[in-house]
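This follows on from our talk about sequence and fold. Can you supply me with one protein entry, sequence and fold together? Could you add the entry underneath, on a fresh line?
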Amino acid sequence: MPGYEVRIAEKSEQEAVLSTLLLAFSVDPCMRYALTSPETFIGAFRRLAMALGGAAFEHGSAYVGADGGAAALWLPAGVESDGEGIGALIEQLDIPPEKQEVLGQVGEAMGENHPHEPHWYLAMIGTDPSRQGRGLGSALLKEGLRRCDAEGLPAYLESSNPANIPLYERHGFEVVGMIQPGDFPPLVPMLRPARR
């Protein structure tokens, strides 16, 4: 969407940002693998999102569209997701043991694929489903990538929805692997090399 205004989210907007992401991820294949029931998904999503990318609020790298229709959580170099928090949440949920084992393998593979050199990590990005297809996600990506480029750092993400891969490729990301243990949906690591 030409001229779609994107800005850094204020800490006071955290719940609004998480609500936008909740809507966006409500049909995400990887997210719904573990959080299958609506009640479980709604009850756990905010805690999971905060463990994955909540540090963005503290580092001034949570982005939101001016109308709240889209949001992204970027983690700067040296800032990581809360792996222990994610593991603890999964243990608290009523997830069958066989799925917990698969989720453990997913977590290990994510760690193995994650770059070790300084980089920006796009932990989560999403658009309210009623607003999808209007370029809001592209506007968010451009804003975050502008910061990556200003610092001369690569950007990394895991695409949890195959439908989003072409969007990321248009913004310079390249597929660098595939995470799919057991019956888990494809999770695709993608890297955008550093630019200046």
Summary: The helical segments are 14-25, 29-34, 38-53, 55-58, 83-92, 97-113, 136-151, 165-170. The chain has one domain: 6-192.
